[in-house]
Amino acid sequence: MVSQRRNAKSKKSNETVSTAVEPTSPSAVTTSNSQEDEGLQTLFYRRFVADIIMAFKVLRAEVWAA
Fold first, then answer.
1. CA gap 49, 40 in Å, rounded
2. E-strand spans in 10-51?
3. Where is the composition biased (Polar residues) (predicted)?
């Protein structure tokens, strides 16, 4: 991230004080949120598929036992 520099004169002395300002870009916040949402969707999808596979295994065991 590019840091912006602002020079300010101190009131007590003539020395220059430089302050670094790093703005937060809204795109970075959006990217992190969308990545988090994508991770949650992936986790939900994997859990959903695992539940379906387990249901088929139980159904197959029930049919095999009958």
1. 14
2. 16-21
3. 15-34
- For residue 7, CA distances in Å to 2, 14, 26 come to 16, 12, 25
pLDDT of 9 over the 70 cut = no
Give the E-state strand segments of 1-66 in sequence order.
Answer: 4-9, 16-21
- 15-66 per-position pLDDT tens digit: 555 556 555 655 555 556 778 888 889 999 999 999 999 999 999 999 998 7
Q: Which residues contact 5 (CB under 8 A, 6 or more apart)?
A: 18, 19, 20, 21
Residue 32 confidence (pLDDT): 65
Per-residue tokens: 52: 């379906």
Alpha carbons 9 and 7: distance in angstroms, whole number: 7
